[in-house]
Amino acid sequence: MKFVAFFPEDLFSTLLLLERKRCERSGGRFALALLDVTRLEDPTPVFHALLGQMRETDIVGWYRADSTVGAIFTTLNGAAPQEIRDRLSEKIRKAIPDNVPFALYIFPEDISRELYPEVFISKPKASYHIMKRVVDISFSLTVLGLFSPVFIAVALAVKLTSPGPILFKQKRLGLLGKEFEFLKFRSMYTGNDPEIHRKYVESLIEGKQKGTGVFKIQNDPRVTRVGRFIRKSSLDEIPQFINVLRGEMSLVGPRPPIRYEMEKYCTWHKRRVLEVKPGITGLWQVHGRSRTTFEEMVRLDIRYINSQSAWLDTKILLQTPRAVLSASGAY
């Protein structure tokens, strides 16, 4: 006889997290179906109908207690994502009443907050995230105020030594892969070919550019004379405090990638982008910077994600000035 348990919310969320981590490492695929049962006086028949469609290896339970039923269809390899989506949608629709709406998410193809519930409902860390945001705002305002003369001096140096805008604006990916406009002081000549960087990054991620500087090309001919100085001293990063004030970034977190970088990521690499806000500084910057390989950088970012705390953030912030002043690994 087939046996499929119905799990409470806390346990279901834990099992969803474990299944996602398993697939991140194995490169596998799973699906999450969410059924809205708020309109039903008695959702029990829906439970039984859904359970009848589940395999023993699948997982079903409360995604949100008393409102949303979740079903995790595990180990969905060997078929195209759209084929999986169509097949499961048909199976679920046949099993449940027409007045029960549902949504279906395929991992890793779908980037959705529903697949990362612990990022948004982690109650033990709620106070930490509030405090982190308060520190982000107060620290950024302080830096922008105290260093406004430096800000103006760098802006004038960029403007007077090469034609083009003062700020470099680029689309980057933040929390859950949401795109935002990333700000830096311009360190390159205008009109340069971005394909140079794209090809370099692709070879770096594939492991063909070991020890040559993560995401920054040494002796890059596109960089201006002033640009070399502000990159080496990290002064080009100052405008990112504006990104922090906007809530797009945090003081501490992984560096935000360009979309074409993420397209080359393995599934487990994507954790560095999807689970936390990107940051100005992080474990990579203080423990390796451009001396590390790409995969070492990813592992440092994931270590940070798994160990987030006010104390760890403080340690990283205190170690950042030394890393900046030493300019070790900066290009």
Describe the structure.
The chain has 331 residues and is α/β, with parallel strands linked by helices. It folds into two domains: 114 residues, Alpha-Beta Plaits (2-Layer Sandwich), CATH 3.30.70.270; 204 residues, no CATH class. The protein contains 14 helices and nine strands. The strands form three sheets. It has a five-stranded mixed sheet, sandwiched between helices. It has a two-stranded antiparallel ribbon with strand order 6-7. The chain has a two-stranded parallel sheet with strand order 8-9. A hairpin with a 3-residue loop joins strand 3 and strand 4. Helix 6 packs antiparallel against helix 8. The chain is elongated and about 70 Å long. The chain starts with 5 loop residues before the first strand and ends in a 5-residue tail after the last helix. The model has no long low-confidence stretch (mean pLDDT 85).
